[in-house]
Amino acid sequence: MRMWMVDPLVLCNKHLLGEHVECHMFAGHLIRKRKITNYIAFNLLEPKSLAQRHNVLARQMRKRLMSHKSPLPRFSIYYLPKDQQEYRVDVEKSLKDLIKRCPACKKRFKAFKLS
């Protein structure tokens, strides 16, 4: 599971849908008050931005004429240590990893000239 946190225009359809599903999975994790230490350590989760990111991804899905009918359930991050609550994904690192892994995302990145 991971939040790429890159501009959603860069994400191919597979990664757009994947990150959307993973937002729901992260929300489930947080609802169950599970530890997220490794997600933070590996630059995969930005707890404070989860709900907003879900909404941004849902808007992009609708723009691409994909169906979106799954509101994010309510969750709390306040059981987490403050440093985990405030953690921010290194977007530059995330983008480099994404375009290295996915030719379709790399093509979209170049097409939209995003940096």
Task: Tell me what the structure shows.
With 115 residues, the protein is mainly alpha-helical. It starts with 12 loop residues before the first helix and ends with a helix. α1 packs antiparallel against α3. The chain contains six helices and no strands.
What's the topology here?
Elements: H1 13-31, H2 37-41, H3 50-63, H4 82-85, H5 91-101, H6 103-112
Helix pairs in contact: 1-3, 5-6
DSSP summary: helix tally: 6
Structural class: mainly alpha
Mean pLDDT: 96
User: Span between N and C termini?
Assistant: 24 Å
What portion of residues is helical? 40-55%
- The topology string of helices and strands comes to HHHHHH
Radius of gyration: 14 Å
Q: Give the amount of beta strand, in percent.
A: under 5%
**How many separate domains?**
1
Please tally the β strands and state the result. Answer: 0
Instruction: Return residue spans where pLDDT drops below 50 for at least 5 consecutive residues.
Output: none
- Principal-axes geometry comes out as globular
